[in-house]
Amino acid sequence: MRAIVIEEFGGPEVLTVVDIPAPEPGPGEVTVDVAFAGLNFADVKARSEGYRVESLPFLPGLEVSGTIRAVGAGVEGFTPGQEVAAFLNGGGYAEVVAAPAATVFTVPEGLSLRTGATLPSVLPTAYGLLHEVGRLREGDTVLIQGAAGGVGTVAGQLARMGGASAVYGVVSSLDKAEHALKSGYDQVFLADTFDADVRGATGGKGVDIALDPVGGETFRRTLSVVGRFGRLVSFGNAGSEEPWSIGPAETYPLAISVAGFSILNMAAADPQRLREIATAAFRTVTDGGVELPVSAEFALEDAAEAHRLLESRTSTGKLLLRI
């Protein structure tokens, strides 16, 4: 089978197409004939910095959709030919993948495999950020960094659906603002001035919930616009800056809570909890109309081009590899 392999860390050019044997399912696993693979910024950091890469060579890719190829010993509820979406700890950029059955989900009825590839990572992440960690309540005001990206596109819709009174987004350029405004946001601000803009929009009160995947200086500025009893949730360090230390001086005056969320850690340590969150998240698509638009598709051999677009921070919505 064809797969993308990283043999050294570096730019998009290190993504190499190779022919390797197709995997067989071990106990508790299924194999999937992949139709589409979703791209995530974590893939970029794995390729460029070795994020969560234990050894080389490494096969990137965290989420796929396709059909069950074979079922390993002890697996129940899946049969060959069934349409599924799967969350992986690498290996998704391939024609066939092996995945723990615990992180494989039946594609909801009425959804295509193309849409299915957008579900395993982004939907549970956005849902977990807002409902499990952020504790979204009716009437809350919400600020979301990266509003035009995959998680941001979904999180804006989920915040609106969850009863937020105002949803503010932050984007890196005006070109992305129109996309974000179609995704549940009331107002969208540029990254350069968002802190002043949020204070203005909230009359100086700040927001109840803020979601930040950027880290570094953006994290500090986001913390500065969280209001009394507010919750700031960090879910990444896309800026690759040194993390800020947070202590009583920052949290005590306004009784602010600061938390973190990693779907990768949850998938590895508590797949049953991931399944519960994913089930609730997928329901927002089938019952509530939440959608994650696919903005571009690439052939497997064009994975490097896809990474260049993702890394440029000019894309919106979701990027897919068409296997």
From TrEMBL:
Pfam families in UniProt: ADH_N, ADH_zinc_N
Limits of the Enoyl reductase (ER) domain: 10-321
Coiled-coil zones: none
Annotated SUPFAM superfamilies: GroES-like (SSF50129), NAD(P)-binding Rossmann-fold domains (SSF51735)
GO CC annotation, single: cytosol
Keywords: NADP, Oxidoreductase
GO-annotated molecular function: mRNA 3'-UTR AU-rich region binding; NADPH binding; quinone reductase (NADPH) activity; zinc ion binding
InterPro entries xref list: ADH-like_C (IPR013149), ADH-like_N (IPR013154), ER (IPR020843), GroES-like_sf (IPR011032), NAD(P)-bd_dom_sf (IPR036291), Quin_OxRdtase/zeta-crystal_CS (IPR002364)
PANTHER family from the UniProt entry: QUINONE OXIDOREDUCTASE PIG3-RELATED (PTHR48106), QUINONE OXIDOREDUCTASE-RELATED (PTHR48106:SF13)
Protein name: NADPH2:quinone reductase
Species per Swiss-Prot/TrEMBL record: Actinacidiphila rubida
